[in-house]
Amino acid sequence: MLLLRCQPKPTPRKVLCGFCATMGKLQSKLKQSTYKYSRPDDIIEERTQTKALQEYSPAHVDSVSVVAALNSDLCVSGGKDKMVVAYNWKTGNVVKRFRGHEREITKVACVSKSNQFFSASRDRTVMMWDLHGSSQPRQQLSGHAMVVTGLAVSPDSSQLCTGSRDNTLLLWDVGTGQCVERASVSRNLVTHLCWVPREQYILQTSEDRTLRLWDSRGLQVAHVFPAKQHIQTYCEVSLDGRTCISCSNGFGGEGCEATLWDLRQTRNRICEYKGHFQTVASCVFLPRAVSLMPVIATSSYDCKVKIWNQDTGACLFTLSLDGAGPLTSLAVGDTISLLCASFRKGIHLLRVDYSRGLELREVAAF
Fold first, then answer.
1. Cα 363 to Cα 258: distance, rounded to the nearest angstrom
2. pLDDT at position 266
3. Which of 63, 215, 319, 343 could form a disulfide with 325 if both were Cys (CB 3.0 to 4.6 A apart)?
4. How far apart are the first and last CA of the chain?
5. pLDDT of residue 153
6. Do 80 and 63 meet the contact criterion of CB atoms below 8 Å apart?
7. Which residues contact 3 (CB under 8 A, 6 or more apart)?
8. 319-337 burial string, b = 16+ CB within 10 Å, else e?
9. Alpha-carbon Rg for the chain in angstroms
10. Domains of the chain
11. Dihedral pair phi/psi, residue 27, rounded to 5°
């Protein structure tokens, strides 16, 4: 309710004609961007740049709720238009649209090293899609009593875990589409799920302000992390499986943070990242291929994407996507690219530039 009071009602995005939609990259236009840069001496400078921004064919005609990387070229997204869209973010083309859900898409999850992916919706169902198959779902999974708010695929792609505001987690056999385990915890309104790489464990955030670690063998709670002061909105596990990040909701700078946790030893809080002024909706670990330091990125309802030093908690860069509305989801495209879903302006392609230290800039929108 707080978000609805503070944010104006979104206006529908223009639908392009069939000819324009097939053109891919539409045009370049000059865009003035303002950002804050934290210097090594802790002095924060505000800079303004005018850069060419590529306008791609739009992926959706309404707010985008979630985006995930399918491979190094393609992403999968879902939103209020009830569609799941596969998009080539390097060429600016819609690859395929998938229709089947009756209400807004809430989550998408990609199957590792394949062309298959899952979508969850407010219609309480989960659907499995194949990029090169029919536009109809390969599977439809029904088992939750309320909106599905969590999706996580096991590392070997044999199982899918789903979570909901109905306080339950369900474990599915991907091959048969059958539910094999069910667990319920009172007041555990699931907000996100993430499977730990190369492990049998599933990480889960909740509206009860806690972060839980589940053992998929029997779907039992293996560990509950110390409760935070605010709702936990999202979680992400590092590729090595040693640490994880969770995000908090909030307003006016209260809450509005990300937290780094130890998954392997003491399982204590390692670091906090504070600086957003509204709910932090998403967080990702950035690849180490270019950066010499471990860094993470967060996106928030305050229209900002921030990059942080993972070890010290220092904010290294802030990019303001003015007019985009709440930023709802982040995904790593490749070693230097981020995809950011927004409430008003679709999906933003962001580029990490290490040539002058560390900068983040918007290069395209779709």
1. 26
2. 78
3. 343
4. 28
5. 98
6. yes
7. 279, 301, 326
8. bbbeebbbbbbbbbbeebb
9. 19
10. 33-290 (2.130.10.10)
11. -165, 165
